[in-house]
Amino acid sequence: MTKSQITNSRVYIAQIPEGVAPNKSHFRTVTTTEDKPELEEGSVFVKNLLFSLDPYIRHEFAEGAKETEVIGFGFSKVLESKNPEFHVGSSYFFGALPWSSYSVLRPQDLTEHFNIDSIDKEIPLSAYSGVLGASGLTVWDSLRRVADLKKGETIYISSAAGTLGQLAGQLAKRKGLRVIGSAGTDEKVAYLKNKLGFDAAFNYKTQDKREALAAAVGPQGLDIYYDLVFDNTVEIALDLFNPHGRVVTVGLLAGHKGEGLALPKNIVHLLLKQIRWEGYTVFEHFDEFETFWKEVTPLVKSGEIKYTETVVDGSAENIVETYLRFLKGAYQGKVSLKLGEF
Ligand SMILES: NC(=O)c1ccc[n+]([C@@H]2O[C@H](COP(=O)([O-])OP(=O)(O)OC[C@H]3O[C@@H](n4cnc5c(N)ncnc54)[C@H](OP(=O)(O)O)[C@@H]3O)[C@@H](O)[C@H]2O)c1
């Protein structure tokens, strides 16, 4: 390999998973030694440093993208630039990136970037792909825009130990709500109760979900279901709701595994209890980042808002195996794969 060459690993979608969770056979990782690319005006050549592992990647498959590169969110550092806004040595790109070791980003790809001088050095950069990134914004904005949190009410959060769930629980607690969460391991359940201050939590894999949720909700009834899963839990929530309850549907974790939602048999409760069921996506609210950071960054910095993250060391060649482990719930909190130092 000469000085003008690089070794690049790229991940492609080999097969579309039909109604099943993604597995190894759905991906293909190709490693090549190649010449450094010639840049066109406005483009930059980056080394990818950290990939945020997010469940929604499943949707790329659903839309049928065989033989295209997998795209995720990540951070990269600028190695060469023909774009006046990106400087070698001080600019970091954060946004949609192909799962590869190196990438060429064209002007239309360069939607977000951080200058190294504008980053709060006391907060790990990885936090900007989780609690202070699009995930955090989603929670903060959906709670204030859709959930209509009221002091004294009870909220239940599914996948509560995940990236969104952890923040949702803590923000709701700060507003004076009674917070119930569920997660898939006893360690995660203990973390919710002992570290994050959830009022109740249960293991949805080892306990009967209906019984456990009904016991946690108790005679006070349920007011908000913060739905990150989109499965039959809505049916249970509808039975437990007080009048004017709200379902805030934000995530599709069951769908990412190819599991569909059956329409709740008791959907008539929407009428009888005057329930509001509303979906939220963050994509039209990125202009709220500044306000969100102003409010939440100090809370993260002071430790008033806690978050756990798992940063797995690896390379572009390990993305697939790390991602598949992540989908099975093997890691705690926000999960990223780190390919290099910042
Ligand atoms: N609407 C938006 O704009 C928006 C923005 C960002 C993310 N999202 C969505 O929000 C959801 C949560 O995102 P996240 O980043 O916080 O994910 P996450 O919770 O970190 O996702 C991984 C965890 O989900 C849990 N899980 C997997 N399948 C499950 C199931 N069938 N039922 C319950 N829990 C399950 C697993 O933990 P356990 O051990 O607990 O099972 C796993 O560790 C995702 O669907 C994501 O795509 C939406």
UniProtKB/TrEMBL annotation:
Listed A to Z, the keywords are:
Oxidoreductase
What Gene3D superfamilies does UniProt report for this protein, alphabetically? Medium-chain alcohol dehydrogenases, catalytic domain, NAD(P)-binding Rossmann-like Domain
InterPro entries tied to this protein:
ADH-like_C, ADH_N_2, ER, GroES-like_sf, MDR_fam, NAD(P)-bd_dom_sf
Domain Enoyl reductase (ER): start-end pairs = 25-337
Q: GO molecular-function annotation terms?
A: oxidoreductase activity, acting on the CH-CH group of donors, NAD or NADP as acceptor
SMART domains, sorted = PKS_ER (SM00829)
Going by the entry's taxonomy, the superkingdom of the source organism is recorded as: Eukaryota
Pfam families, sorted: ADH_N_2 (PF16884), ADH_zinc_N (PF00107)
Q: What is this protein called?
A: Enoyl reductase (ER) domain-containing protein
Per the UniProt record, the source organism is Linnemannia gamsii
**Organism classification:** Eukaryota, Fungi, Fungi incertae sedis, Mucoromycota, Mortierellomycotina
